[in-house]
Design brief:
The protein has ten helices and nine strands. It has 265 residues and is an alpha/beta fold. It has two domains: 6-46, no CATH class; 75-253, Rossmann fold (3-Layer(aba) Sandwich), CATH 3.40.50. The chain has a seven-stranded mixed β-sheet, with helices on both faces. A two-stranded antiparallel ribbon has the order 1-2. The longest helix is centred in the C-terminal third of the chain and has 13 residues, at 197-209.
Length: 265
């Protein structure tokens, strides 16, 4: 493969792209014409996420469609998928819900490893729902506010509730990198005053949807992890913090698992 055009590399590097060579090569590969390439480079230099420009992101070895404005799946979230798969691997036809699904990447990745999974994904943002429906080919995508979006026949049946809900405190959104701050819908970023508003709501409603011993997995940040775990414990779930390199997760198990309150980390 030929080296990317050094002029494109220089333009991307000047714009702050850390992996300028790799991004230039990808843009050249995805562009259909020179005009397309020029437009794509200009968009990237202006700060638009690479994944929204090319229309896809790699996640857990899969190519996931990414539409403009929709939250781009991050590599750190792959740890949530790994943990979810470890939980359901020995279950017959596990039921998994990808809540606040964005592109649906989490659910799709889980189901790709465990094809017997009954997958449901849900999001409040119509753009995210439309995007997820392009990715979730073996499952259902629902539109609505958290649990309001889900079919009632899932009550008490969910084995894993996988959640990457917004957890950025409102006042800190202005400090985020421009590609996220300016090009991902605010509803996918804003977690309220302390970043935990959605986590509290997710925790409060989880027990009704989980089967006895079912698991809630929430991606969070290290500073907020104890608060997320406390919200889960207050809702009657056995909660603990799981740290996996780049990611911080809270794992919370519903009543009937043989434990309550808090769990080992």
């Amino acid at each position: 493969m030929a080296d990317p055009d050094p002029r494109i590399v220089d333009a991307l590097r000047a714009a702050g792209c850390v992996f300028a060579e790799e991004e230039a090569a990808l843009l050249e590969a995805e562009a259909r014409t020179l005009g397309d390439l020029r437009d794509m480079v200009e968009r990237r230099v202006a700060g638009e996420p690479l994944e929204q420009i090319v229309g896809w992101a790699e996640f857990c070895g899969l190519r996931v469609v990414v539409s403009p404005g929709v939250f781009v799946p991050r590599r750190r979230t792959e740890a949530l998928v790994d943990l979810a798969v470890a939980i359901i691997v020995d279950l017959d036809k596990p039921v998994v819900v990808d809540l606040c699904c964005g592109t649906g990447a989490i659910g799709v990745a889980i189901a790709s490893r465990e094809p017997s999974t009954e997958l449901h994904a849900a999001d409040l943002d119509p753009a995210a729902v439309a995007c997820a429906r392009r990715n979730v080919t073996m499952g259902q995508v629902h539109e609505g506010d958290l649990y309001d979006a889900l079919p009632r026949d899932l009550l008490g049946r969910v084995d894993v509730l996988a959640v990457n809900a917004p957890y950025v405190p409102t006042d800190e959104i202005a400090l985020m990198p421009t590609d996220a701050r300016d090009h991902e819908h605010r509803v996918a970023l804003d977690g309220g005053a302390d970043g935990l508003a959605l986590h509290r709501r997710v925790a409060a409603g989880a027990a009704a949807w989980l089967r006895p011993g079912g698991t809630l997995l929430i991606e969070t940040s290290r500073p907020q992890a104890e608060g997320t775990a406390a919200a889960c414990a207050a809702a009657g779930l056995a909660a603990g913090v799981v740290v996996r390199e780049m990611s911080t997760l809270v794992r919370a198990i519903s009543a009937g698992s043989g434990s309550s309150g808090t769990m080992a980390r």
